[in-house]
């Protein structure tokens, strides 16, 4: 099987797992939580391998994992509160989780990040040589930040009334952007974009990515609205002009996410972040753009509320 | 004037400015906000100088400053909402700030941090060579994190009904811990603690720091309670046993904060973080322990609520 075929098969396989996980509400939406946790922790592991410089510094791996799980629980507790405020369909364990990880509607994420900073400083002081202190502590904190908070907002998106719509929307844009760039670059590519991190990419490619994104989001909005109306689901209150603008912005963000991961790999002098997924490389290679797309998309929706739109 | 005298004079001077800033409510408590902003931005500047490795990587300074200010505004908007929920005594500008920086009671801090990660990735890709990408992006993000969020929680502490009590409490512990360690180390120091970052410190010194912290917090609790009762202020609902325990924990945290900053400086091979404050060095040298003490103390108070205590 060649690389492209492997890529398509494993891509479809992962898509099927994701759709399955989002379709069934078992034990307080445990599947979406597990899915997010798998992406975050595998991504974090790959980031730690990528940034390991041996004696020159490396992340505090176990501590980072513990805090990644705690932060995911803080996101999950918020998710549970939004999905089912009265906890009518939740177990005692879920209620306990909400009490401790979303106390009095306080977002524990910044506090847990500070606790991680304190813990990794303590470990640095007690167990490592002096050289590389800044590097080790910084990559511990920023690795958890990049992977865990990146996907944590996927859960919060999913908790919105039209959450599935936005979740698919923000996942479709990086895929369309990538695909559009690939074909536009091959067919029309003339003017090199001159980025050191990705020297063969052309301006025509990037423009193709933006164009395909705008087309796909409009097609998706149309299809979803029709289907949601027939199923009596909440309709996303977003117009063609706005979703086109969002397609442009998010296409740009997903290119940044993609190139940032390439920059990390080139800085570390490796090709793929791992060999977890046949044809794709590692989780970071597959999901690099999503780590940026979900939180930035969520941020957009939050600011949109201020402008008078309800968060549907 | 010798170093110790300089240290005392400038320490008292700064103390006077802080007390003045906290005493008057002018234009929506603008003084405490400015004070916090000065600490955060000077600390961030020193951190950026400290972590600058030239061609091997350095923080994206201007972008970090912009995001530091945005994050401070998010803290300030929350502070304003807690202090005066109905905005009865606030200007239109304050109300606008609350609408945009604390929209629907959403904590924007994690989202702004992600936006900083996206922005510094974009800058790295567009304007810098490939080597040092991981270092540059990581120190940009963790620098803002360390300094801005560190002091941001000081504002939220101050917004509590007995906020001034906790603010002074969490500032007193590092000072007592430091002073106790200095004298106990001089008088009783026999057994070297063996930490590479601070090779002359002894176990007796650290124990002395903890002991003085416990004594000082109890003395402060007693004095404050008496005075608050006479002035009809809200009384802090914390008992001797709990405040002693808190003294021990926070003394440990402040030692970590102090040593972490030493580790950064030794890693960077410099002695003082700057020469801003006569006798002390830089803001980071003066306030290193506070960057950890305020958020960890706030975290403690949040978790304390879950155990049934009201946040007074």
Short description:
Chain A is mainly alpha-helical.
What features would you describe in this structure?
The structure is a homodimer of 312-residue chains. With 312 residues, chain A is mainly alpha-helical. Chain A folds into two domains: 1-159, no CATH class; 162-312, no CATH class. Chain A is 73% helix and 0% strand. The first copy, chain A, contains ten helices and no strands. The first copy, chain A, has helices at residues 3-23, 30-50, 61-83, 92-101, 109-127, 133-159, 163-188, 203-231, 240-268, 283-306. In chain A, helix 2 (30-50) runs antiparallel to helix 3 and helix 7 (163-188) crosses helix 10. The longest helix of chain A is centred in the C-terminal third of the chain and has 29 residues, at 203-231. The first copy, chain A, is globular, with a radius of gyration of 20 Å. The model of chain A has no long low-confidence stretch (mean pLDDT 87). At the A-B interface, helix 5, helix 6, helix 9 and helix 10 of A face helix 5, helix 6, helix 9 and helix 10 of B.
């Amino acid at each position: 099987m060649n690389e492209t075929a492997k890529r398509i098969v494993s891509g479809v396989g992962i898509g099927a797992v994701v759709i399955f996980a989002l379709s069934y509400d078992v034990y307080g939406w445990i599947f979406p939580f597990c899915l997010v946790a798998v992406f975050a922790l595998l991504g974090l592991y790959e980031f730690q391998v990528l940034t390991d410089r041996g004696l020159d510094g490396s992340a505090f791996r176990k501590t980072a994992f513990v805090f990644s799980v705690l932060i995911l629980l803080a996101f999950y507790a918020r998710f549970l509160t939004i999905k089912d405020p009265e906890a009518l369909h939740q177990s005692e364990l879920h209620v306990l989780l909400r009490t401790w990880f979303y106390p009095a509607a306080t977002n524990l994420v910044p506090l847990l990040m500070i606790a991680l900073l304190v813990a990794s400083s303590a470990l640095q002081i007690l167990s490592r040589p002096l050289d590389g202190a800044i590097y080790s502590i910084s990559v511990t904190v920023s690795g958890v930040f990049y992977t865990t908070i990146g996907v944590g907002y996927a859960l919060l998106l999913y908790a919105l009334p039209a959450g599935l719509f936005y979740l698919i929307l923000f996942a479709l844009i990086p895929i369309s952007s990538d695909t559009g760039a690939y074909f536009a670059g091959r067919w029309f590519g003339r003017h090199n974009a001159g980025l050191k991190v990705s020297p063969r990419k052309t301006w025509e490619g990037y423009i193709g990515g933006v164009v395909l994104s705008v087309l796909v989001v409009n097609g998706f909005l149309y299809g979803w609205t029709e289907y949601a109306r027939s199923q009596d689901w909440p309709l996303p209150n977003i117009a063609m002009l706005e979703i086109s603008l969002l397609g442009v912005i998010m296409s740009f963000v997903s290119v940044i996410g993609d190139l940032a991961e390439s920059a990390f790999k080139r800085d570390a002098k490796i090709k793929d972040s791992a060999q977890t997924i046949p044809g794709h490389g590692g989780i970071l290679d597959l999901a690099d753009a999503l780590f940026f797309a979900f939180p930035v998309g969520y941020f957009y929706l939050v600011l949109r509320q201020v402008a008078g739109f309800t968060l549907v």
